[in-house]
Specification:
Shape: globular
Strand order of the largest sheet: 7-10-8-9
Distance between the termini: 43 Å
């Protein structure tokens, strides 16, 4: 049975976050071969003073939200029962698309009752809305310990999925040139979509093989993403000639 490895806690969080690489804007290079299973780490970059954790390694480390907080152990207990399902979101789809791979970061907001109020695909270089939507659906059904303190708790969980086939990353300039004539089509999809990173793969004859979305500004509406996916999948781009090309660009919708 496939399962994501246990979440690293305490002082190991920082080291694991560096190893996972977060989920920053992808670099234009082929991914290196790596083991099938990757580490998932807990990190909250929005609130972190760093001083107490570094000076008092023996004390409990806590992930804090804006007004409430959950410690890493409580977050791990909430996520662990769903680890196999999260893993299967990727592996059930990668069989036919071995080029899929990348990092995602999901931002959770947990209410005072421990229920997930919202999950945002904050960053993603995966390039598959089908996988991203599956991850979001599972995350929305999780439950956690009631946050300590006042109000909701916010935290982020990065995951890393390894591609089984190399791809050719296009530069940012090349990506913008490829998609410029099609961007108006995305504006036809209903819903707010500010600061959306769109990542897609292009195969034989310039056909788009997969596309995914992430936004640091808002939790994208499923309806917008499904409409955008349908639109992008119909684009005709430059044939990568025997390769699979991967590109990412920033879309600023209303």
């Amino acid at each position: 049975m496939r399962q994501l490895p246990c979440l690293l806690l305490m002082s190991a969080i920082t080291a694991c976050w560096a190893a996972c690489g977060g989920a920053d804007k992808p670099e234009p290079r082929d991914p290196e071969p790596a083991p099938r299973e990757k580490v998932a780490a807990i990190h909250d970059p929005s609130i972190h003073d760093g001083e107490d954790e570094q000076e008092d390694d023996g004390e409990e480390f806590e992930v804090e939200g804006l007004s409430g907080h959950l410690d890493p152990y409580d977050i791990e207990r909430g996520i662990e029962p769903h680890s196999t399902a999260l893993s299967d979101c990727f592996y059930s789809r990668v069989k036919k698309m071995k080029f899929l791979g990348g990092k995602v970061e999901m931002k959770y907001k947990v209410g005072r009752d421990g229920a997930v109020k919202s999950v945002q695909m904050k960053e993603s270089s995966l390039g598959s809305w089908q996988v991203e939507k599956c991850l979001l659906d599972i995350a929305r059904g999780m439950s956690f310990r009631k946050p300590r303190g006042k109000g909701d708790a916010d935290f982020s969980v990065p995951l890393d999925f390894t591609s089984a086939r190399s791809v050719r990353w296009l530069t940012e300039e090349a990506a913008e040139s490829e998609v410029d004539e099609y961007l108006e089509q995305l504006a036809e999809c209903e819903g707010r979509a500010p600061d959306v990173w769109v990542t897609l793969y292009v195969g034989a004859r310039g056909k788009v093989k997969s596309v995914g979305f992430a936004s640091q500004s808002v939790a994208l509406e499923d309806e917008w993403a499904e409409c955008a996916e349908q639109s992008v999948m119909a684009w005709q781009l430059t044939d990568p000639r025997g390769q699979v090309a991967k590109l990412s660009f920033l879309y600023n919708g209303r």
